[in-house]
Amino acid sequence: MHSFWNSRMVAIQGWLYGIRISAFSRTSTLRIPGLLGRLASIPHIRNTVPVQLTVAQITERLLESYHHTGGINHLDGKNLPSKRGIALISNDLLRLLFPGFFDEQVVHSSELKAGTAHLVEEVLVTLEAEIAKSLEYSPPPELRSPKRDLRPIARTYTLEFLESLPRIRDLLQTDTEAAFNGDPAALSKEEVIVAYPFIEAIAVQRLAHELYLKNVALIPRIMTEWAHTRTGMDLHPGARIGSHFFVDHCTGTVVGETAIIGDHVKMYQGVGLVARSLAAGQALRGKQRHPTIEDHVTIYAGATIMGGDTVIGEHSTIGASVFLTTSVPPHSLVVQEEANVKVMSKKDRERNSTADFIV
User: How far is the CA of 256 from the CAs of 39, 135, 240, in angstroms?
Assistant: First the structure.
């Protein structure tokens, strides 16, 4: 075996040494002689000298860009919340909500009290600092006048937020039950929590919603966009979502800021609860732009429901790929009937090239 690999290495080295590069004017051609002959060649490779820039020159070019393209700079302004810091805090909050599921090591019940207290203290310190940055950047209207020290307010906000964790856990318990009961592929509730991206997405949204209600700027959206990148589901922190919520498969689902979702609502991948038109831009801020979904509604994959005045009545079912801009009464079944699907033999279609093919 040893001699076999030695002979292989000799053959490979000989082949590599046989590669020659011939330069013609400003282009080069790669030729591989030997057993392969001239089967492989790569023409038109530029034989140019690379431009050598110094760090000082690169810095000057960036500074020039900062001067001319100022819309994406944040210089000499307020210290913004840290995206990385918020991501770490979000992960710690998941550990508090689901002890043992988001930890690297086993959490023993005998150590639960001490471990929880330590983690709560860590989150209190780090989140308070980020909320203080947020309040300094954009204080809520009630805190803008007269000017005051915002750090004690940041601590109060953080403590009130942490106090809401047991209530959020109660809601997440219903979401977990809805996911397990609504998906025959689920092996256990443990699998739902540890593996389903939906649970992580809705947990972060419910956390972020608490801060959104306090008019804390930036942090709620950073949290939900962190979850968005990890799960593929875009849940705005402003959306009001009831209990026993479940989105199967989760990918591509979008729920807008002013959407209202009742209890026991089930959705599938690619559902959009979106605004009808955003042409007015910032003039629409604070207005109801997204639909209301009442209790016990099921919305199948790819359905789009638009508009702040659109209400889906309770116990309704919205079929796949339906596009809705109007309200439907309770106990409705909404399906898409206009699309035509035709199935034919490929051989028949080849014989009759003028055959219609409708999808």
Answer: 57, 24, 10
